[in-house]
Write a structure and sequence with these properties.
With 129 residues, the chain is an alpha+beta fold. It contains five helices and six strands, in the order αβββααββαβα. The chain has a six-stranded mixed beta sheet. A hairpin with a 2-residue loop joins β1 and β2.
Length: 129
Amino acid sequence: MNESDSGRRLSVETEDLTLSVDGVDATVHATDRRIFVEVERVRDALRVARRLPDDSVSNRAVAELVRAGLTVEVRVRGRTVAAAGSDARPGPLSHRLGVAPAELRLAGAVGAGYGGLSAAVRRAQRLFG
């Protein structure tokens, strides 16, 4: 059986790739089976999500990720806020917000938001302290 027979037709290798969507710059890197899209703030992740194609195109893209055994993670400050692909497990929140088959990770978003708030407080303390 060759790779095309097994469904593993996609390979992703990145070193220094930057993606820009709606004015938001995202750094993209990959490991063996994961593609990481890193953005600066939770608000940036939301802006990127709003620019994704309609459901039929997104569903086909996710199906191809699953077929290839890949998962895309959107990360903010090192915390995963959303995932799509073979390891994504959409829960009630994803279904309620209509983003399934993507998985939203509320704990990641809260943690990233708190990290951003903490960083802003530290910057303000350095400026005014």
